[in-house]
Design a protein that fits this description.
Elements lengths: L3 E12 L2 E12 L3 E5 L6 H8 L7 E6 L2 E2 L4 H7 E4 L11 H11 L4 H14 L15 H13 L5 E5 L7 H16 L3 E6 L2 H7 L2 E6 L2 E6 L1 H7 L4 E5 L3 H10 L5 E3 L4 E5 L4 H13 L6 E5 L3 H8 L9 H5 L1
Parallel strand pairs: 3-8, 3-9, 6-7, 7-8
Antiparallel strand pairs: 1-2, 1-4, 4-5, 9-10, 11-13, 11-14, 12-13
Helix pairs in contact: 3-4, 3-5, 4-5
This protein binds adenosine-5'-triphosphate.
């Protein structure tokens, strides 16, 4: 069995009478990317803060990097890096000075510190900007500097709290590449994101946090299988054609009589599409528009974060 980089059971946290985490379990295998998804205010940052020792949980067993967090917080801190909403970048000093400051914090000898700083600035494409104050950096450069600073301590587990929020598409793709390279180097990444596409693109496993609980957990593929959502959408302009189609396909369709749209459940495969088209042809019906919709993480997200309390296991989808 793969060793777990992060293992948490029964995490609870309340602020006054507001319960933010209501029994959260997490298991993140070493060397993987794990993504915690959830709507605003779901408690993602709270989870990151607890797992990275910044705040305490009210209850729960937590092991990070093989260390019991409650008993050995220092050992946990030594093995992790955290970047994101509480960035460590100081805008008043240069990128290089920020890096050297980190090297000092990690007690690296001066020459070693300079070597590591130069190497990381180069790796994150910041060598040319190294002597400029960090306040002059673009959003993407600041995020890269933030990650570079985290890597000075050579952490085995990195927490990235919404690492691409506010970045333009090019910077976002650069950040994705950086994250993939981190994992290739054996690092475990715990990522929170509000972008479903990002979790889909990067994460080995995804947990959907809703209302203080994990609503579902699995690979992107497993999660997509949890929700019905695959369908063919047929749109008509002629009400008579619409009615004929609705009666020809009557028990399989969902109707929208106002928009003259029919939704026919389908896995989007060539075989199912041909069957559908054959049936429409046989009845002499022609739709004005036909689009195939396969479920994506958006469907999962909206289906699971509607305030329900049922935990859905990926195995259920296979049945
Ligand atoms: N120190 C605090 N005192 C009181 N309530 C807090 C505190 N920190 C967080 N909360 C509340 O806990 C809930 C979860 O917050 P958290 O920041 O973890 O959510 P999140 O999922 O990271 O959201 P977002 O995507 O908006 O950052 C929110 O309702 C927030 O208002």
């Amino acid at each position: 069995m793969t060793d777990l980089a992060i293992a948490a059971t029964g995490l609870r946290k309340s602020y006054g009478d507001k319960t933010v985490l209501d029994g959260v379990d997490l298991a993140v295998p070493e060397g993987t990317i794990f993504s915690l998804l959830g709507p605003n205010g779901a408690g993602k940052t709270t989870v990151v803060k607890i797992l990275s020792t910044l705040i305490g949980a009210d209850a729960g067993e937590i092991r990070v990097g093989g260390h019991d967090l409650a008993a050995h917080p220092q050992a946990v801190r030594a093995g992790i890096g955290v970047t994101g909403q509480f960035s460590a970048v100081d805008g008043l000093i240069t990128g290089e000075e920020n890096m050297l400051l980190m090297a000092d914090l990690h007690h690296l000898p001066k020459a070693e510190g300079r070597r590591v700083a130069a190497e990381l600035l180069e790796r994150f494409d910041l060598a040319d900007a190294a002597k400029k104050p960090a306040s002059t950096y673009s959003g993407g450069m600041k995020r890269r500097l933030d990650i570079a600073m985290t890597l000075v301590g050579d952490p085995r587990i990195i927490f990235l709290d919404e690492p691409t929020t506010g970045l333009d598409p090019r910077s976002r793709h650069t950040m994705w590449q950086i994250i993939r390279e981190l994992v290739t180097g054996g690092v475990t990444v715990f990522l929170t994101t509000q972008y479903l596409e990002e979790a889909d693109e990067l994460a080995d496993r995804i947990a959907v946090l809703d209302d203080g609980r994990i609503a579902a957990e699995g690979t992107a593929e497993q999660l997509k299988r949890l929700v019905p959502g695959g369908h063919v959408r047929l749109r008509f302009t002629d009400p008579a054609a619409y009615r004929r189609a609705a009666s020809a396909l009557h028990h399989e369709v969902t109707r929208d009589d106002t928009a003259l749209v029919l939704h026919v459940p389908s896995d989007g495969s060539q075989r199912e599409l041909r069957l559908l088209l054959d049936r429409l042809d046989a009845s002499g019906i022609e739709a004005d528009e036909l689009t195939v919709h396969t479920p994506d993480l958006d469907d999962v997200f909206f289906a699971l974060t509607g305030g329900t309390r049922r935990t859905v296991q990926p195995e259920e989808a296979a049945r």
